[in-house]
Each structure stands twice: as structure tokens, then as C-alpha cells.
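Progress note, sequence design subtask.
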């Protein structure tokens, strides 16, 4: 995790975040000054950013929104006040409406982003300045410290070449907190094909099978927000095991980038999980990231203990083979 410290100074009215990365200062600068790079991490897990405007000049405006896992939209904007490339830039950071205009009754801040060389790479020092104690406390109560930390903690995957970062690593599982788990897997194929493989029934039945000896008997994906979906599996003839299935609702579709669904076992009572799948392509390979939100830690641990990761890896190996055809 690149974040090394987050400190709040109520007297100076500041929040300071420091992150150290194993990348050159120039590479870190690019991550913060190119919208395609920013969209990969600017926003905590489950709230990815989309930049609709990015005028990186003094007096220029960057407009963006973050889309929550249930389709919620949070708009914001930067006004660039100072640019000292490739060392430092400063923005006026405010909430915005759907037109990109600042919302005056919401707290804003002046934020600086400085990039410094270190013996092992580069350091980001970001200082947010608030106009009052009330504004600082309001932003902290809204979860700014936690959200900012989680967003910057995603930098490692952005700064490294995807093949170097994930190729050969298999299915990786990170427990983020009591209710969130992040699963990543590099697929040797383009994003468009990986998206189709998740949404076309004939393709789903070729790879989403879990351990050997099972077949997918029902593949009814939800293709648009508001749709329901249904999947079911059974052992092949003569195999051992009991048929089962999952069903849920499709909440967000941003093809071919992101889809968010609920998931529950067919015929079983109880709360659903929330599955947030994102796909990012670079140099012909696709990084698949699945953020799962569980109702509680006990449910999280119970599901992880079922061998879920091993079954997913076997399926992703089939998806690799499909992408290679």
C-alpha cells in the first residue's frame, strides 16, 4: 500500500496525505495529470471517476463525477490555480452540479499535489486546506480521510505495466475491510472480448464453470440496469455434487468498462452480496477487478472458505484460453 501517512491538523486546517511509490517522479506526475490515468484510481473502490473535461492550464477546469455501486452520482470539479510541471500543481476542489458548476453551500478546499524524488522512486505529498474548522469537520464526517486513502492506495496497479504487475500472478484476493474483498486477475485478451464473455450466454457456458466436472445449465445475464439475471450449474453426467444457482439484479452498466450486480444463491433467504466488476485494457491484455461487498465479516469469511478463489482461477484459465483463440 503506497500511503504512508494521513494527518489532520485542526489548527492549520489541513489534511496531509503522503504516499511513496516505486516509480519515477515523471511517471507519478503523469498519473495525476492525465485523465485516463486518474480515472483508474481517483475515487475509492466502488466509486470510480469519469472525467468529462480536463483543461490542464492555469485557470482551466477539470470536471468529473464518481458513480457509486447503485448508480449514485457525485459530481466535482477542479480549478487549476498553480502548475509547476512536473513538480507541483494546486487546485480549488469543490462539489459540483450535473452541469459542472460549483455548489456554493457545500464545503470546498484548496489542494496541493507535490511530487518529489526518493531513493526508491517518488513521493506524493498532498495537502488539503480548509476555510474553517466546520468545513474540515464536515469533510471528515463525510469520510474524506478514508476515501482519499483508499483511492491513493490503488496507485500501484496504475503505475506499473500491467503485464509486470499481474501476469502469472493468478487470481489475487485482498481483504479490504470487514465487508469488502477485492479480486484481481489479468486476462490475456482485449477488454471487448472479456466483456462479451461475461454477457453472451454461449460464451459464458464455455468458461464460467468453476472446478472441472461441472457445466453451466442456465446463463441468463442482465444486459441493462434494472434487468435481473440467473445462472445455474450442475455436475456433468455421472459427476458428484448438487446443482445450484445464483440470481440478482443489474444495477449499473457502463459497457465495456463496468457492471454492478447483486448476488444471492437461488432459493436461499438472507441478504445479497454486491459485485462490482471493472475491466481495464492496456497493451492487449485486460485487468479484471471484482469488488465484492458482503453483509458482514462472518458471511465474507464463510464464502471465502468455500474454495471460491480456486474455482474462480480455474474459470479464468478457461477465459484465458478463450481469449487466445
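Output:
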Amino acid at each position: 500500500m503506497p500511503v504512508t501517512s494521513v494527518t489532520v491538523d485542526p489548527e492549520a486546517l489541513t489534511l496531509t496525505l503522503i504516499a511513496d511509490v516505486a516509480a519515477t517522479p515523471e511517471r507519478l506526475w503523469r498519473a495525476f495529470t492525465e485523465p485516463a490515468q486518474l480515472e483508474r484510481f481517483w475515487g475509492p473502490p466502488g466509486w470510480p471517476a469519469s472525467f468529462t473535461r480536463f483543461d490542464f492550464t492555469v485557470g482551466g477546469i477539470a470536471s468529473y463525477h464518481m458513480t457509486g455501486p447503485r448508480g449514485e452520482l457525485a459530481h466535482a470539479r477542479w480549478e487549476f490555480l498553480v502548475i509547476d510541471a512536473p513538480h507541483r500543481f494546486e487546485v480549488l476542489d469543490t462539489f459540483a452540479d450535473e452541469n459542472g458548476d460549483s455548489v456554493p453551500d457545500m464545503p470546498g478546499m484548496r489542494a496541493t499535489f507535490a511530487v518529489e524524488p526518493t531513493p526508491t522512486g517518488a513521493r506524493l505529498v498532498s495537502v488539503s486546506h480548509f476555510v474553517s474548522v466546520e468545513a474540515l469537520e464536515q469533510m471528515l464526517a463525510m469520510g474524506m480521510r478514508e476515501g482519499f486513502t483508499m483511492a491513493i492506495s490503488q496507485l500501484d496497479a496504475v503505475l506499473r505495466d500491467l503485464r509486470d504487475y499481474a501476469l502469472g500472478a493468478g487470481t489475487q484476493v485482498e481483504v479490504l475491510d470487514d465487508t469488502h474483498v477485492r479480486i484481481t486477475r489479468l486476462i490475456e485478451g482485449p477488454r471487448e472480448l472479456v466483456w462479451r464473455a461475461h454477457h453472451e450466454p454461449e460464451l459464458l457456458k464455455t468458461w464460467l464453470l468453476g472446478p472441472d466436472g461441472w457445466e453451466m445449465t442456465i446463463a441468463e445475464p442482465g444486459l441493462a440496469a434494472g434487468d435481473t439475471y440467473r445462472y445455474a450449474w450442475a455436475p456433468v453426467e455421472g459427476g458428484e455434487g448438487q446443482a445450484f444457482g445464483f440470481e440478482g439484479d443489474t444495477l449499473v452498466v457502463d459497457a465495456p468498462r463496468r457492471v454492478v450486480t447483486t448476488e444471492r444463491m437461488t432459493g436461499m433467504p438472507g441478504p445479497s452480496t454486491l459485485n462490482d466488476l471493472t475491466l481495464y485494457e492496456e497493451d492487449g491484455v485486460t485487468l479484471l477487478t471484482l469488488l465484492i461487498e458482503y453483509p458482514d465479516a462472518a458471511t465474507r469469511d464463510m464464502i471465502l472458505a468455500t474454495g471460491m478463489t480456486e474455482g474462480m482461477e480455474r474459470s479464468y484459465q478457461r477465459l484465458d484460453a478463450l481469449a487466445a483463440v
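The longest helix spans residues 308-324. Work on this subtask will continue into the next period as scheduled.
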